[in-house]
Amino acid sequence: MQDANSTQEKRANRTLLFTMGAVVLAVAIIAIIGFVFMNRPQSYIEGQVEGTNIRISGKLPGRVMEFYAHEGDTVHAGDTLVRIHSSVVEAQLGQAEAMKEVAAAQNKKIDAGTRSQIVNAAADLLRQAEAALTITEKTYTRMENLYREGVVSEQKRDEAKAAYDAATAARDAAKSQLSLAKAGAQNEDKESAQALVNAAGSGVEQVQAILDDSFLTAPCDGVIDQVYPEPGELVMIGAPIMSLLKMDNRWVTFNVREELLNDLQMGKKIEVMIPALAQKKIDVEIYYIRDMGSYATWRATKSTGSYDSRTFQIKARPTEDVPGLRPGMSVVYSQD
Fold this sequence. Notes:
Elements (H helix, E strand, L loop, with lengths): L1 H36 L5 E14 L5 E6 L6 E2 L4 E6 L1 H26 L3 H33 L5 H30 L3 H25 L3 E3 L4 E6 L6 E2 L6 E16 L11 E6 L5 E12 L19 E8 L11 E6 L1
Antiparallel strand pairs: 1-8, 1-12, 2-4, 2-7, 3-6, 4-5, 6-8, 8-11, 9-10, 10-11
Helix pairs in contact: 2-4, 2-5, 3-4
């Protein structure tokens, strides 16, 4: 009886071992098949869309009076964007035009010959010029003292100095005209008077060229990306007023490790995905590859068995127009 029970127990153990062995073998076979035939996970490289930004600035220092375009507005080349007002430059234009008129009048008088009225008029102009010089000199002295005390800015001191220099030049010119009137008109005098007329005209043109920047216009088509000052704020020469985004010039940028460059060669077309455009897939062509320098090098963490890997910047342009594609959007490239 015991022999029969022992025999059945051995058979049961053998059956259990066989079953377990079959299960282990089946699991091993499935694992091997999965390892061989299962697709490797994709490697993703993330970048972003970039575009050309143009900063709108001018050579006229003054106060922002009015904006004709605001952030998000679409503008075209030649559209007026902003108006800047400068009372100082406008005053300089008036002064330059007055000097031009004075020079022209004096030139006309010299051509007509020397008369007592001409001499008296020249003397009057000289007295006016000396009076203006006295006022501007006092103003400049006051501004210089205030500037040294830190009360006014360097620009205000320079403006007062420019007015003083202009008054000095006007006084000297008036003196010259009076001397010419007393001495009589000679050929040299006439040439000198004409030269003063030409110089005064050049001064007017110079100031007018600065005032032309009172109205800044768009250099190209685009979208107003950002406006920096508020209406009423003062801006200096060359200070950016706003930035214009060119919508016809967009590209995507990736930063990749050098071991991935084998599949990202110059001129190659790759497919990327734009998450912001409902995961739309577009084709882009690589046109730029540049080493980003040692600061972007991936350092090896082991002393052996690994190496440093440099980072490269890759730029690619869309092969066709993509509506809605804007700078700042994420771009994903999947590398098998």
